[in-house]
């Protein structure tokens, strides 16, 4: 069984109130290293069998048409989760 990960983020010109709230809370909690925060969405799509180029292409198409709102969000990454585990 394979898994594809899709990350979606608000476009840079879109206000991100959740990110601003987190950015405001971090210094109060002692995390002063971070100057800004953007909050996005992560989807994990499981597939029966291996993650192939065709599966990744289908995941990208689903991300662009169903998982994100293309007016206000960008699909940032679409990748095979096993590649992420191997790299990590």
TrEMBL record:
Keyword Translocase included in the entry's annotation: no
EC number: 6.3.5.3
Listed GO biological process terms: 'de novo' IMP biosynthetic process
GO molecular function, one term: ATP binding
Organism field: Sanguibacter antarcticus
NCBIfam families: phosphoribosylformylglycinamidine synthase subunit PurS, PRK05974.1
Assembly: Part of the FGAM synthase complex composed of 1 PurL, 1 PurQ and 2 PurS subunits.
Coiled-coil intervals: none
A single Gene Ontology CC term: cytoplasm
One Pfam entry name: PurS
Keywords from the named record: ATP-binding, Cytoplasm, Ligase, Nucleotide-binding, Purine biosynthesis
Gene3D superfamilies: Phosphoribosylformylglycinamidine synthase subunit PurS (3.30.1280.10)
Name of the protein in its database record: Phosphoribosylformylglycinamidine synthase subunit PurS
Family to which this protein belongs: Belongs to the PurS family.
The protein's annotated pathway: Purine metabolism; IMP biosynthesis via de novo pathway; 5-amino-1-(5-phospho-D-ribosyl)imidazole from N(2)-formyl-N(1)-(5-phospho-D-ribosyl)glycinamide: step 1/2
Function: Part of the phosphoribosylformylglycinamidine synthase complex involved in the purines biosynthetic pathway. Catalyzes the ATP-dependent conversion of formylglycinamide ribonucleotide (FGAR) and glutamine to yield formylglycinamidine ribonucleotide (FGAM) and glutamate. The FGAM synthase complex is composed of three subunits. PurQ produces an ammonia molecule by converting glutamine to glutamate. PurL transfers the ammonia molecule to FGAR to form FGAM in an ATP-dependent manner.
Catalytic activity: N(2)-formyl-N(1)-(5-phospho-beta-D-ribosyl)glycinamide + L-glutamine + ATP + H2O = 2-formamido-N(1)-(5-O-phospho-beta-D-ribosyl)acetamidine + L-glutamate + ADP + phosphate + H(+)
Chief subcellular location: cytoplasm
Subcellular location: Cytoplasm
């Amino acid at each position: 069984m394979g898994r594809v990960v899709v990350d979606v983020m608000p476009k840079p010109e879109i206000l991100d109130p959740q990110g601003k709230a987190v950015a405001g809370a971090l210094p109060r909690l002692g995390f002063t290293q971070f100057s800004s925060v953007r909050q996005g969405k992560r989807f994990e799509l499981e597939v029966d069998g291996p993650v192939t180029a065709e599966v990744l292409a289908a995941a990208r198409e689903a991300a662009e048409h169903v998982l994100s709102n293309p007016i206000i969000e960008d699909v940032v990454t679409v990748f095979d989760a096993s590649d992420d585990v191997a790299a990590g």
